[in-house]
Every structure is written in structure tokens, then in C-alpha cells.
């Protein structure tokens, strides 16, 4: 606890020490506590101020609250209120600080500079995202499944002037046409069977913020027309309502489809395409940024080994080479799943190729980047040999294990690993 006899001393001490709650008299030798509270809140917005007075009056109490004071109480009669009041003030400060920490963690998590990758391809993509983030232009993110389109959408939002408003995401392929219309635009009670009350809709939720429309290529044609109206007029009609709703929303869309081809076959509106693709960013596939595969692998290793409470230090060189040779049709999402599986299976501090799913090994063997002579030829030969012995014994597992000279549990593990039946 620190004390100060006047405003000047208090302001000087506040510069030297970290204070959360201030208890201040209204009548001070060199000033007024009501005015001091305004100055303190301007300089230190997180602190809470409790003002005490011997002669309470309504105008002073109103002004004190306007100036940011936590409370304004009269001495004597309200002495028993001080301690509970101070406790509540401390609780409010702690809550505010916690919210700020969480907000900062969110910003750090989704910042463009936090996106993993050192390859030229991803650096160019990040630079494009940085340039467009500061504007309000509609953005179209393209790329294969699992390349991180929602991560980029979140990052663009966090780098924009709308960062303190809502970021709302929806996968357009996850709903039927009727349900998607209601989810996007909302509905009035009684608009259809089961609509027992008004529903706000995601565009309204995202007002003044950003809405992310993932898999926009799956949007039905009549909903495409409604979306086009939103972009052109900044208004929409809720289902069952005749009065338009005005909004201010930034749209970021994403697709893994070739929308130009969809236009040619009549599945996507050309006018909508040109509106949503005002600024288009293509996200590279993981196989196009091989230099980043090891970075992702170690990032996921740290994440999943911590969750599993395992002390796993690294991958073997063969393991990393296998990852680099794989084609990764599921991209980063597929790699994430593979590393999580390996961490679950691992009993040693080093993860080796024997923990890789058989399809990843086969993928690596068939990869054009694989120059033959790799350790995966052995895995392929082992799978073939086990299958031959299983055929010979008519899938008698006990007999097969005996002929192979391995334990029955080992046979079952290898069969599961190689996808044999």
C-alpha cells in the first residue's frame, strides 16, 4: 500500500509504481479528487478509483462516475462498504487484464507474422495478405483442401481495422440450401415450419467485422444472387421479412474449386465471381513448399507431445525425408494428423519411420522426388511378403506368425500398419 498527501505527489508516485486501485478523498490540498480521477483514468485506463467525501452531493457523484471512478461514497456512514468495494475493484482490474492478455494471445496466434513458413512461396503469399489486410476490399482465397485458408482469413482480419469486431466463419458446404440461407441472413419467427422465434443470422453477427465464407463454390445459385446483392448494396432481407437490413461487413471467401470452370458449366455466377475475386490470393500446396515441411512437423510435435504429456525430442532423418517425399494431398491438415498419430504411437524420444502410416510410406515411395534405394523399399517388401504368407495360410494369423518367426501381436500390429486383412 502506498500513500500520497496531495495530487502532485500522487501523480509522481503513479509514474514510479504499479497501482491497480486508488482510494482518493474528494477534497485535497492542491486539487479535487473528482478531477484527479479523470486525469488518472486518461493516463492509466486499467486502474479503478474509489472516491471518498465527507459531504456527498449528486452532481459530484455523477461527474465522478463520468470521469471513470469505480464508485463515490460518503465517509462515516459508508465505512463498512470500503473493504468489499476495494475487493470488487481489484476483481474488475484483474478481469480487464485477463481479457487484454487473451486478446493479445489471439492477435499473436492469428497474426500474419505468426504463420509458419520460410519458403519463398509462402512469404510471397503473406506479403500479399499484408497488403490487402489494411483495406476493406473483398478477398478470395484459393487453394487445395488443408492449405490454411481459414488461418489466412483470420490473420487478414486481425491485421485489419476491424480486428476488435467479430470474425464469423461458416462452411457453405455444411448446410442445406434452406438452412444456409437462414444461417447467413437470419429469419423472422413464423417464416417457415420450426421458426418459433427471430434468428439474427451470421451477417448481422459480423456487422462492422468480417465474415469468412469457406467453400463458397458450394453455394446454390439463388443464394449466390442474394450474396451478390449484399456485396453491391450492403443490405439483405431476412427470410420472411420485407424490410432490408443494412450492414457493414468485410467478406473473405475461400474455395478449393476452379470457379472459372464452374462458371463455364453454369454452377457459379460470373458477376459474383468478379465481385468476390477483387483481390485473389492463391495458397500454395504443401508439396510446393517442401522447405516448410520440417518446420510444420516440429511445430505439431511440440503441440501434441505436450498434450500427450510425452517427452519426444525429435524425428529421425529418414522420417523427415519421408515427409518431404510425400505428395500431401491433404496438405497441412494431413501432415498434422500424421504427426498426431505418430506421437500417440511413440514410446521412444525419437520418432522413426516405422511409426508412419503405410499409405504415407507408399506415397513417399511412389513420389517423383524419391530416387529409389530408400529405406521404404524394405517396408514395401515386408508388406508384400506378409500378404503372401497370409494367402498361403488362408489368413490363419497364428500359422502366419509362426512361419514369419514373429509374435502374433507383432503380426497384428504390422497388418494394421500396412492395412492388411
**Residues in helices, as a percent range:** 40-55%
| Main beta sheet strand tally, sense and closure | 5 strands, parallel
Q: How many domain units?
A: 3
CATH A-level architecture of the largest domain: 3-Layer(aba) Sandwich
> Count of helices?
18
Taking all Cα atoms into account, the compactness measure Rg is: 31 Å
CATH class term of the largest domain: Alpha Beta
Q: Assign the CATH topology of the largest domain.
A: Rossmann fold
The CATH superfamily name of the largest domain is P-loop containing nucleotide triphosphate hydrolases
Number of strands: 14
Strand percentage, roughly?
5-15%
Descriptors:
421 residues, alpha/beta, Rossmann fold, Helicase, Ruva Protein, domain 3, 3 domains, 5-stranded parallel β-sheet, 3-stranded parallel β-sheet, 49% helix, 12% strand, extended
In words, what does this structure look like?
By secondary structure, the protein is of the alpha/beta class. The chain has 3 domains: 7-106, Rossmann fold, CATH 3.40.50; 111-284, Rossmann fold (3-Layer(aba) Sandwich), CATH 3.40.50; 288-418, Helicase, Ruva Protein, domain 3 (Orthogonal Bundle). The chain is built from 18 helices and 14 strands. It has helices at 7-16, 33-43, 58-66, 82-110, 120-133, 149-158, 177-185, 202-205, 221-233, 259-264, 270-276, 293-307, 317-325, 331-345, 358-366, 376-392, 397-404, 408-418; strands at residues 21-25, 27-28, 31-32, 48-53, 71-74, 139-142, 167-171, 210-214, 235-236, 245-246, 250-255, 279-282, 314-315, 350-351. The strands form 5 sheets. It has a 5-stranded parallel sheet. A 3-stranded parallel sheet has the order 1-4-5, with helices on both faces. It has a two-stranded antiparallel ribbon with strand order 2-3. α2 packs parallel to α3 and α12 (293-307) packs across α14 (331-345). The protein is extended and about 100 Å long. Mean pLDDT is 87; it is low at 371-375.
